[in-house]
Design brief:
binds zinc ion; alpha+beta; two-stranded antiparallel sheet; 15 helices
């Protein structure tokens, strides 16, 4: 509340604001910026980014006042004032209101430790689960924003008194909305439970691989969004062809063109479960289960889908992997992480100091029934991995 100290009039604060505005305008228009040395440019960039964060803290503080003054029209008025979408203005207003009761987050913002996107995520999660504030602020420091987003959704779910009800609500509100816009173009968007999302993406994966390989052969590079789109189209077409035994473009004589080979099996889905939750000993508020890369899922749903052939259950006791329900060929992120920590993020070959492109290898080969487990896993750099594979071929003879 530095800016509202008793005895300091509006004028003094507004003078500070005007000086800041003038300084920023001057710097932005300064032609010498274009001819800065590389180091100088980087240093100035740091200063600008730090200033932007301080401004974000100030902006949110003032947005809370703005919201008080403008009431129900606050988001609309702010959207007009800032030239942003109403959705974005509403997020700003909501975050500003929440921050009034979250001094820890407000301080971190003011100290330049958070971007506005990070502050919005943390304020939203801390509003539901205040005890997670510290760990979320910590997470924000050195993790990508997608990690923070997952962590926030886990924190919210952990505080959710009735996880099942949340799951049911999301399921009830499931939707595939599609339409066309002024480009003119088609657009579509999906909303559903984490379990359905993981299921869909697992089934989409073989089609992604097929499209990826087809394009690579043709020398075409697709973005991951383009790949997802093409894979979805391919999945829909193939589903129809498989039902009817025909392909679009059947020739005029009516001879069916041979079906494309079936895609590979869906990708494994990793469900990480807290052991206490599996045996109904979880404390209220304690996290129960989540699908790696997707988010929390109620334990009842996990039990229901445990038999799904493409699902791998990773049961955790504290931070240790206690049990893996089914072994696929690929090592899940949990095992990978555990092994990498054990090996201090380096290749396991004695004398090899490589730490780039570490692959998790089966000590006892997979084709020789070697389990995909923590104890049978071994992180090797790609050079050592290739050597090991060549040796295995000789030693195990028929591994192929
Ligand atoms: Zn190595």
């Amino acid at each position: 509340m530095v800016f509202m100290a008793v005895g300091v009039g509006d004028t003094e604060v507004l003078e500070l604001g005007k000086a800041l505005r003038a300084g920023a305008a001057e710097l932005a228009g300064n032609r010498q910026v274009a001819s800065l040395s590389a180091q100088g440019a980087e240093r100035l960039f740091d200063l600008v980014l730090a200033t932007e964060r301080s401004m974000t803290a100030l902006k949110l503080q003032l947005a809370a006042r703005f919201a008080e003054n403008h009431g129900a029209k606050a988001a609309d008025d702010l959207a007009r004032k800032t030239g942003t979408s109403k959705a974005k203005a509403k997020r700003t207003v909501d975050t500003a209101k929440k921050l009034k009761d979250q001094p820890e987050i407000e301080d971190a913002l003011r100290n330049g430790e958070l971007s506005q996107d990070q502050a919005e995520l943390i304020a939203d999660a801390a509003d539901v689960n205040p005890s997670a504030t510290g760990s979320l602020l910590h997470k924000a420091k050195d993790h990508p924003i997608d990690d923070l987003r997952h962590e926030c959704s886990r924190a919210k779910a952990a505080a959710d008194g009735d996880e099942e009800a949340t799951h049911a609500r999301v399921h009830r509100n499931r939707r595939f909305t599609a339409g066309s816009n002024t480009d003119p173009a088609f657009w579509g968007s999906l909303y559903g439970t984490t379990a359905d999302g993981a299921d869909l993406m697992a089934h989409l994966q073989p089609f992604r691989e097929r499209i990826f390989n087809q394009n690579r052969k043709a020398g075409i590079h697709l973005t991951s969004e383009q790949l997802d789109f093409d894979a979805l189209m391919e999945m829909a077409r193939v589903a129809y062809q498989n039902l009817t035994g025909t392909r679009a473009g059947d020739d005029e004589d009516g001879d069916a063109i041979p079906m494309p080979p079936p895609p590979k099996a869906p990708k494994n889905v990793y469900v990480v479960v807290n052991f206490d939750a599996m045996v109904d000993r979880a404390q209220p508020g304690e996290e129960t289960a989540y699908i790696a890369g997707f988010g929390p899922v109620p334990i009842s749903v996990v039990r229901e889908v445990m038999d799904n052939a493409f699902l791998v259950g990773v049961v955790m006791q504290g931070t240790e992997v206690a049990k893996i329900k089914r072994f696929g060929r690929r090592f899940g992120p949990e095992i990978r992480d555990a092994l990498m920590v054990k090996q201090r993020f380096r290749c396991s070959t004695p004398g090899c100091t490589n730490w780039l492109r570490i692959e998790i290898d089966h000590k006892q080969p997979y084709r020789r029934d070697g389990p995909t487990s923590y104890t049978n896993g071994d992180g090797k750099c790609d050079t050592c991995h290739d050597e090991k594979t060549a040796r295995d071929r000789l030693f195990w003879d028929d591994t192929g």
